[in-house]
Structures are given as structure tokens and as C-alpha cells.
Amino acid sequence: MSTGISMDRVDQIIDSYGCQRHHLIAIMQDIQAEYKYLSPEVLERIAEKLDVGVAKVYSVATFYENFSLEAKGKYIIKVCDGTACHVRKSQPIYTAIREYLELEGKQKTSADGLFTLETVACLGACGLAPVVTVNDKVHSKMTPELAIELLEELKKEEAAL
């Protein structure tokens, strides 16, 4: 499968919950934790194994903001745009990262599949504003320049692998 998702592993996760419908959200969370998103094939497999309609599974996946139906990069960058971060200029950081990653339109993931850029309403680190997280690691008092330096460091680490 070209998505990099192992249906055997998906089945293991579903089976670990006894294929019980009331564990739908937990199953989806575990699969997303492993693959960073829920593909259409995965949603269909969940529906099949839990014996529920595909529409039900899709409705849950689209209702909760934490579920993603799009593949994400290895590094998920979240720029806080809560009040404290916004006032301390988080928007120029977001713009600099978008330009650096050459993201266009609604595109969120870089062409190399390495980075996904998102905004969040609040990361709860207001005293450290403006804040950016990379895979949930907090980077405080960011500037556009520091954000680009961080991405360049990550790219160098990837090249060394």
C-alpha cells in the first residue's frame, strides 16, 4: 500500500480493543498516533471490523478536530495564535515558515513530506510567547529567524540519517 500504512497493524490495533464499537474513538486515536493521519482505507477497515457504517466512522473522524484525514509530515509544526502569541507576533513566524516550506494555497505539508505546518488556538504556554511546537516539543520566544534556523537544523539532521 502506497500510504505506508500496514493494514495488519491497523487490524492489531482494532483487535486489541476486541472489535467493540464503543472503542471507536480510542481505536482511531491509536491508529492516528502511529501513522499521524487516518486514510480512507483505514476508515473503511475500521467500519468493516467494527460492523458499523463507513459514514459513521467518517462522521466521527471529521467531527473531532484532532483527527486528520490528510497525511502529515515527519515533523508537525504548530504555531500558536492564541492571544498572547498573536500579540507577540506569531503571525510573521507562521508566514516565514510557510514561505520557507514553499507551501501554497491550502497546502499544509511540504513537498518532501518532511514538515506539516498548522496553527493552533492556544498551546497553554502564554508566558513563553510566541510559541511553536515541533512534534509537541515547545520552542519559546520564537521569531521568524529562529523558526527558520530550527527547520534548517531539522533538515540537516534528516540529511545525516
Structural class: alpha+beta
* CA-based shape: elongated
Order of helices and strands: HHHHEHHEEEH
**Mean pLDDT, nearest integer?**
93
- Our measurement of the CA-to-CA distance between the termini, rounded to an integer number of angstroms, reads 24 Å
Q: How many helices does DSSP assign?
A: 7
Please summarize the sheet with the most strands: 4 strands, mixed
CA gyration radius, whole angstroms: 18 Å
Number of strands: 4
Strand content bin? 5-15%
How would you write the strand order of the largest sheet?
Answer: 2-1-3-4
What level of helicity do the residues show?
40-55%
Q: Provide the low-confidence segments as ranges.
A: none
Write structural notes for this entry.
The protein has 161 residues and is an alpha+beta fold. The protein contains seven helices and four strands. It has helices at 7-16, 24-35, 40-50, 54-63, 83-87, 90-101, 144-160; strands spanning 75-80, 115-120, 132-134, 137-139. It is elongated and about 50 Å long.
